[in-house]
Amino acid sequence: MKSPTHAGDGRPRFAHASEAEFARILDFYGVRWEYEPRSFPLRWDARGRAVESFNPDFYLPDLNLYIELTTLKQSLVTKKNRKLRRLRELYPDIHVKIFYGRDYRQLLLKYGIGPAPAAPRTGDSGRRGAPASAARPLVPR
Amino acid sequence: MSESFAAPRPSRGAPPFSTPGDPASDIQEILFSQEQITRRVGELGAAITRDYAGRAPLFVSVLKGAVFFLTDLTRALRLPVEIDFMAITSYGRARAQSGVVRLIKDLDVEITGRNVVLVEDIIDTGLTAGYLLRLLQARSPASLRICTLLDRPYRRILETLDIAYRGFEVPDRFLVGYGLDYRERYRHLPFIGMLKNEVLAAEAQPDAALAADADA
Hints:
The complex is a heterodimer.
Chain A: H1 17-28, E1 34-35, E2 40-44, E3 50-54, E4 58-60, E5 65-69, H2 74-90, E6 96-99, H3 101-109
Parallel strand pairs in A: 5-6
Antiparallel strand pairs in A: 1-4, 2-3, 4-5
Chain B: E1 27-32, H1 34-51, E2 58-62, H2 67-75, E3 82-88, H3 91-94, E4 103-105, E5 115-123, H4 127-137, E6 143-151, E7 165-169, E8 175-176, E9 192-195, H5 197-203, H6 208-211
Parallel strand pairs in B: 2-3, 2-5, 5-6, 6-7
Antiparallel strand pairs in B: 1-9, 3-4, 8-9
């Protein structure tokens, strides 16, 4: 069980502003949440010590759902997707939802929140109609 | 009894009738034309008419996004119906106060013992619909079902949400028109489309803290 550090107001010390924003959205809709409450070991060394683990950002106890917010930085997304696959293999009863950067940005855009978008990346050209903002690293609709 | 409909191929290009200065000229692509919406709303109306035969359901909607859908949907019904509206605070506006969602306009009618259909424009995370369902369920209606024009299941957080009637399943894109707005504009467009990138770029409120957050 992981025990996140807390800010002075009793809330967890979020690693990223996007996580703090997401927590505010959950609070707004009255959804109870826990921040990084659990670490799931994915690989172990010969001595049985965990050498790789997955720590979902949020757990929503009333929905029995873990939420992971991630980025559009492809190297990190690929790594996280691999860990997610491993997690599902090892812990098939755990429900995890991953929000990629684009998903989260679209979610915040709904509320008029978001950074000024950049031009679309070449690699995103197949995403017909996606706002240019979707091609930037992270931020939330 | 779930009514669903796959998204048709979107029409390429900007609306043919758009002119400079016309809000429609801000649309990059039409996802659902007026004709497609009309046809699908008629199908939903027929399904609801069949399911509620002999009853007089109350259609409840939340201001303002679902107003266009509600009015067209109820006109497609062959039932004695009533309509009523609620309004709630939106996260975007309440964000600065770190508050919780609040009812700012309640229903005018009692729903206890009534057959209620909650009409939504779009269900995304399901958080708003979940809040409304809790609110309405506490008033002991005889039945309570959801009818949404658009369903975007990809970002669903409230995965247990039971949607009885859905118009179209939509991709993870920012949509406007037919009630859907961006900063209170574009609701009146008769179709549903995607805004041009440059419109979002010009008008999104930059949030420096979030913009710097590249590795969450």
